Here is the input.
Amino acid sequence: METYQLYIDGAFSDAEGGATAPTINPYNGEPVADIPVASVADAERAIAAARKAFDEGPWPSMPGAERGELIGKLSAIMKERSKELAANESRDSGGTIVKCGADAYLAQRQMAYFGQMAANYNAEAKEIEGMSREGRSYNYTIREPIGVCASIIPWNFPLLMAVWKLGPALATGNTIILKPASDTPLNALELARIVDEIGFPPGVVNIISGPGGVIGEVLTTSPLVDKVAFTGSTEVGRDIMSKAAGTLKKVTLECGGKSANIVLHDANWDIAIDGSIFASFYHQGQVCESGTRLLLPKDQLDDFVAEMVRKLESLPMGDPLDPATKVGPVVSERQMQTVLDYIEIGKGEGAVLACGGERATDGDLANGYFVKPTIFTGVTNDMRIAQEEIFGPVLCVMAYESDDEAVAIANDSIFGLGGGVWSEDIDHAKQVAARMRTGTVWINDWHLLSERMPFGGYKQSGVGREFGEEGLNEYTEVKSLHVDDAKTRDKKPWYDMLVPREDAGA
Ligand code: NAP
Ligand code: MG
Here is the structure.
């Protein structure tokens, strides 16, 4: 079995004391590789390296185009190795090979985008009009990197989440410590190998695997860290925000969701049924913006759900490495138990199972962490299964009788990450979309995200945005410059110059 190492200050090393833990394949419960378990001392070493690289190294002041070239090389090698990265990801996370292949493709494309953005982003200082005084002074703003970024990512899209953190931090000249989820550390550590081959300046990229509950503390409280970028659960997001408050770190959070999927009365069922299955069950529902609350017109609910169940039960479940598989395992035994517990909670709250509701154990499935795709009807929005993020293949179906009611149910949530509307009348769909309090709304679609569009959450789904120019802005500070370059050095009326005396009422 292969053994990985931490990547700190441009060198590979074991974790303190040589601590390792296996990462597990959720398809069969077997170990995939030996992963280093970083200690607090290892995290402190990574932070010190990133600090030094930012304060003393060439990286932050390197022309954007040069940084972009290195990021472009990273993307190119990721592209060359995309098959290998996809297979790693599948064995590590249980994602189907089709999903992991798509992720590997998107990961290199997005990394290439960040490389291009490095060259173009704010290359020119931005002049502010209307501030000059008698033509002798002028004003402009520039954006500068924030400094040392600690980036903590979850297990559902391990490779993509690593790119979403590395890409913008590096493009804008920050240094970074990346911590992958303990369930899926493999591809982040593979990226460390690629970074090392390319030869980024030492300390610019540091990648350390280890328990969030232990090293997360030092990453979020260290006075040497300037920004924390986190993707994960809302619960941990709250904890991170409170810990970062001690040193007023910049914080961006991409947290949980409970996205409402509103099928309007005039939807095209041919696409709305398959689309709603894709919205809620893609990657076994382990997607932060999954459409986990399906809102159906009351008079259409029974027929719509019956057709959904029929289609859902024919989706092939099995070995994630088989390209025919559409339903794989959930990420871990622990996550499987969480999902099964929520199914019991739903039954206890009086929701009615339309399908699924249990572990799948036919043949080889018994060795893995498979949960049958589950639909609950008879759900009311006050139930825990409608309010809490389950993060598994469990869909809650609710009835509505008017657009107003659908919107009210959709917005009655602490979350505001995604949402969707299905209709043949696009104007109607847009009217409903405009009323949804979420960062993204899909119309007749789901899960598609572009690296050129900002992504993030309203309400307790997050703070800040990733992607697009908004995303890069989250990795920079703005500096305002005021310059007087008058050629004639007239004496200035210092105390009278801010506001003319007559305006000052003196
Ligand atoms: P999680 O438990 O919040 O863990 C996420 C990351 O935080 C992991 O790397 C974890 O490390 C680390 N962590 C745990 N406790 C920590 C602490 N006290 N301080 C600092 N870091 C800590 O979430 P998850 O279960 O892995 O992922 C599922 C969640 O992520 C869902 O809620 C989902 O909605 C959310 N998510 C959101 C987005 C988005 O873009 N909005 C995208 C993907 C996922 P360990 O693995 O070592 O515990
Ligand atoms: Mg694993």
